[in-house]
Amino acid sequence: MFKRTKVTDGTATGQVGFRKKSKVPGVMITQYIEKLPEGKSHPDFTRKPIALTIQEGKFAFFKAIVTGDPKPTVVWSRNNGDVSDPARYQSKYDPNSNEHTFEMPHVKPDQADTYKCFAKNEYGQAMVTVVLNVIEVGFKMTKAPQQQAEVANCNFKKVLKRRSKVVPKAEEPEKKEGEIDPKFWELLMSADKKDYERICAEFGVTDFRWMLKKLNEMKREREEEQAEFVKNLSDLKPIHINADGTASFELEFDLLDPSSSIYLYKDGEMIPYTKELGDKMKHCLRKVGRKYIFSMRDLMPEDAGFYQLDVEDVNMFSTDFKMVDFLVKIQEVKAMEREDAVFECVISAPLSKLMWFGKNMPLEQGDKYDIEVSEDKLIHRLVVKDCMVVDKGIYAACAGIKSCNAWLVVEADKGAPKGKKSARKTTRAGGSGTDLQKVAQEQQQKLDKEREERKEKIKAAREAAAEAAAAEEPEKTADSGAGKDKGAAVEVERIDKTSVAATTTVAGDSGSGHSAGKASGGAKQDGSHADAGGGHSAGKASGGARKDGSIADAGGGHSAGKASGGAKQDGSHADAGGGHSAGKASGGAKQDGSPADAGGGHSAGKASGGAKQDGSHADAGGGHSAGKASGGAKQDGSHADAGGGHSAGKASGGAKQDGSHADAGGHSAGKASGGAKQDGSHADAGGHSAGKASGGAKQDGSHADAGGGHSAGKASGGAKQDGSPADAGGGHSAEEASGGSRQDGSLADAGGGHSAGKASGGAKQDGSLADAGGEPGITSGLSDILATRGQPAELTVKMNTDCDGAWFKDGEPLKSGGGISITKDANIHKLTIHSCRDTDSGLLRFVSGDLSTEGRITVGDVPEFDEDDLHKFSKPVIVRVGQNAAFKMPFQPQESLTVSWFKDGTELKDGGGVKIVREPNHSRLLLRDCLRSDTGEIKIQLKNPFGAVEATSQLIVLDRPGPPEGPVETVETTSSVIEIKWNPPKDDGGSAVTNYIIERQERGHSLWTKLGDVSAEKTSFRDRNVTHGKKYSYRIYAENPQGLSDSLETADSIMAGIMILSGPPGKPKVVSTSKTCINLTWTPPEDDKGVPIIGYQVEKRKKDTNQWLALNAINEPIEDVNYAVKDVTEGAEYEFRVSAINESGAGDASPPSAMACAKNPNMRPCFKDPEDFLVVRAGNSVRVKISYEAEPPPHITWLKDDEPIAPWINVINTEGMSQLVIPSSKRSDSAIYTIKAKNSVGEAFFDVEVRVTDEPKCPGPVELEQTVYGKVAVSWVPSPDQELDDRLYYVVSQHDSNTRMWKTVADRLFANTYTAHNILPGIEYHFRVYAKNDMGLSDPSQSPTWGANSNRVPISSNGVSSMEISFERPPSILVPLKVHTPPKGYQLYMTCAVRGCPTPNVSWYLNNTCINSDKNYYITNSCGVCSMYILRVRENDGGEYRVVAVNSLGKAECSTKLTVRD
Prior knowledge:
The protein has 1462 residues and is mostly beta strands. Helix content is 7%, strand content 39%. The two termini are 48 Å apart.
């Protein structure tokens, strides 16, 4: 029983809950009552949600299946936040699959959390947790998911600790001369010692002693870090490419905390992965026991890189995945039979082994193949030895995802003796045809040069470091507070024990220093300041100067003070990044001195954009500030957009290119105003403010729309092009919403403004205003249209009154001219484009006074085909039945293009035998396994919004023709000629019929003979080779180039000439009858009409029926004049008649025979081959079978010793046989059994002796007595079975000390004595007496010893006692078992040697199961040599075999393993 614990969550007040254990791990169940009602159950999970790691913006979901009665309700929640927003969280239930789904479309990083799923009913609840990890787009290794929480908790130390030495290539700082790549150390810490030399050579490191010393220090630090999260880290296997085309690496460890997060990185950048098999993601991380296996599928060249696996913030394993290319590929080889073939190639980087394949099978070094590799491991060769014709095919070399292949063509040796194998040739065929050694040397020199350059750089850097270290000693003494001074302007730090002197006062990188004062970037090699990095400081963090004196980026510094970007190469300041500061975050100047973007800085102070290239300020971004967020000036001095800045102060748009201010767009509790646009106008405020929102001036100085600003103050439209204020839009105000002045000075409509003040006419859908009491209005406005390039287009606006209007395109006024005509007819305004061009696309707007309407015109082309492609496509595709038909049509790539395929007007869909492939510039149609019925028209249709175009082709499927049309008509039949006629086939199979083939079969024969063929124009045939009176069948085939059709066959046989039938034979006579057969005979017909008789047909008719049944077919005539009718029923009466058969058929029937009854003649009983003696072992059943013949059936009687048999003895009588059965025999059942058969004709008797016995018991004691010299009388007590078995006798065997062999000296003795002769003195004799009967021998009775030592006088020891020697010892193994690896199906011997006294008992075990009694194993023990034999080894014979020897003194054992090979 599980331990019950009272719980409080999920239970009502005063209710007691009990913890229950679920079958699914990780599920927590609380039961509200102690005992559940019958048939009811608490909730439980049969499938729990699975943890998910997914990329930002993807579709995330959890699935769960719950059980319980009553049906539980399912609720989802999360630890840090709510899930009530339906736009972000959706709970669904599928009643068919009983799945509860929790979906998060377009998942965001802030949704990463631990989620809970609750299933509740009235009897309890079940709860399970699941973790969702979200990878941010562009997420780097220097940003772990927990950073935000740790920053909030001021845990800056842990955040900085997570920065990896391996960063993405895009973020790699400029590498110093001779600086060692951090990947070098990461690879060494995960590599085997045997790979150290290779890695050092690759990175140019030659000082191994220094390397090993530093590596040991780094390993100790790394192991301490790893010990916080994992234990038992082992079995690190570097990345490699598998046979299935995937790449993988693996390692083993145990997580101390199962909830610890595991991250994968490639070149320092986090990559998403899945834990589910079969998922479509490229990367997968599976756990098998303690083993973690990372795999990557669909390999591409860009997958090469540096891969790392981290647990939380600690690296566990690093491996480098490299791609090798082929400089020289293998070439086609043509070889003669019995000659060697050589394939060779050169690769771009040393590789110890390539994977070679021959005809899709991997090849290994052996008798058939030699695999050679040069010393520099760049040249690889495959030698196919002793080529035979069967070796031809495609051979391939694979190096990772790169491969090359070539054909091996083997030509037969025509000069070889016929029927004999040609001689082995010593020549080699093939090779690349180029100087491989030269190519390899050039590549090796290139690799050596790169390696030496790295070595020189490292050497120079180390020397410079030593000199600089000596020079720095005085400075270190003077400046003891370097790196920790809060008031210093510059801080100098030495990186990797190397410093570089600078002519200007510069500082090194402040790195990730933790300081309560000021952290600034240090000087780089060129004198520039290094990045301040992610420095977390309570003071000020600024970027340092770069090569040209510019200040490096302040990075993502998190500061409670001020974070600003430093100057870049041209003196500009770098971006302040995403700095999170409680002070001021501003962008620095860019290349032209402009400040960089303030980014998305979150500040409690002021966030402003910096100046861009022309001095303009960059966007303030989405800065969230409690102060003021303003846009910076752009290229022409304009201010950038203030973005979506959320501020409690003022958010204003900056000036754009022409000095205009960008949209404020901000959400502010203060004032949000639009900035000036290109012409000085202000952009839309669009902001949500508690103050005043006004539109800025547009191109002509007008103010832009105040947008949809929601304000508690006043919302007014700005002035438009003519100085009129823009619409106040849908502004919701508690005061007055009024329209601004338009081009003619009129005020714009207040729109749909919802106000507690004044509201005038509202706007319609097309932008026109509803009539406010007879005012001008638009009755038919503009809408979006599509226009074909080169074709005219017309746009019409209809007003309710005659008034003027103006047309605008993308805000620019339009006038007639340049292919555009603007006309007005009363209240109808038209704009006509005479020939549409791409530049005509855009947004057209018609304005009349206060009214306006707009519509978009899109110019495009109807899809079209290239004339050459159309000509090629129109050609018919001709295939044979069973082949595939392919159509391909190229076209120009277009957007919104729909491709459809049709066959005979019916659209084809992808699936089944139809495969449709849609590429950007072409489409393909594949019809698999074509049938004749697939012949027809194939059409492709391209369709877009502007129109459709079609191309047509024909599919012709060729097949053999259909059968000729019947029926076959008989035109003429005479004694010498038969002429037939037919019709052509309905379907010629797509090819014209070339000829017809005619075959004939003579009636009564099975062979069809070809008579000839006729041309396709002729559909008749005359057969002149016929015999009068015979019947013939014909069949006709149609033939075309594809083959023969099915045949058309004549319905009935056609006779040559007139039918002549024979006269009737004589009346049949009954020769004899039995119950199974009636024999008949008859005489031939007196008149055969001059036609030879082939044979006869016999018919029978049963008495009291009218139907005559033929006993043989006409085409199977009876050649003799007698016949045995076996198809009869015993006791039935039949009559028979016979007909003579000639070439024309069967003639008249003979008169019927006399009635004959199918029965045997009367017969006296007689027994058939009976046995008169039977011996049975006591306890077995006795079966006495006697066969007999008699008619009528006799009465059977059995007797035992002339007395009636006992009732327990069974008698089974069947037709022709009788059985006597005694189920369990005893000795008393021995007797003479008599069978008596009697019928009306007579009777018969037969005796059977049955003897029931058993193996005899051994005779009594044997006595020896010598009566005469040289003779010994042997006597014994009779066996107890002697009186019971009169067939018992004795056998005597003799053994002497000379021959030491037992031999039989007397047999079949019915007496109890025997006299042994030739008994010599000085020889010991032994005798054995056996009792023997029909069952076999008894155990022997041993005689006393007779001979040399029988009269020996014992010798006295005179009181001296001799020491007794004991040979007893415990068992021991002299020769143990050996390891065996036999192939499946082979025989196996397994032996070992054991000794011990007394003789030990030996047992064999397979996988701890005793097999001594298993019949599949033959086990022997001969003088301590224990053997086990398996005739044919099976798969389940593999395992651990153990031999155990035990005697009274102890135990010994040995074991081995048996591995069965396929």
